[in-house]
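pipeline: protein-struct stage 2 | run 1193 | Molybdenum cofactor biosynthesis protein B
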Amino acid sequence: MPKIDDSIPFEPAGFAVIIVSDTRDASTDKSGDLLASRIGEAGHRLVTRTIVKDDRSAIRAAVEAAVANSEVDAVITSGGTGFTGRDVTPEAIEPLFDKRMDGFSAVFHRLSYDVIGTSTVQSRCTAGLIGTTFVFVLPGSPGACRDAWDKILKDQFDIRFRPCNFVEIMPRLSER
């Protein structure tokens, strides 16, 4: 049964949040606000937060910069996962993955189905590893960000979460 083992000391992780949008700015970025708040409330560090346009090159450059920052353990993007012509976040980021995390998308869609029903099929959320950095590509809605953080990422970035979590494997991600 999943649980928190309070005998293990908490270890904070460093996060980069990248919002992908042609219309949002710092004053209207509800998804970024939600993620920043949740990251801080959980005891982690928000290393960087930025907004980039729906442009493959801009998205890729922002993710590559975040991954190059040694303080960043995980990147969370929000936006650009739908099917419109401007939705290009998966296309920008997936080629950078060294390893895909197909289970993240499967679990996200399972949880999302309980909230929005079959509309979950309109999201192309994805995740993977770039080098030793976890990267999560979320839809742009605050609800999707809340569900991903509260129901998946919060536990996986808590070393006390059992039976297993991302934090305990982070030192081994560079093994060959």
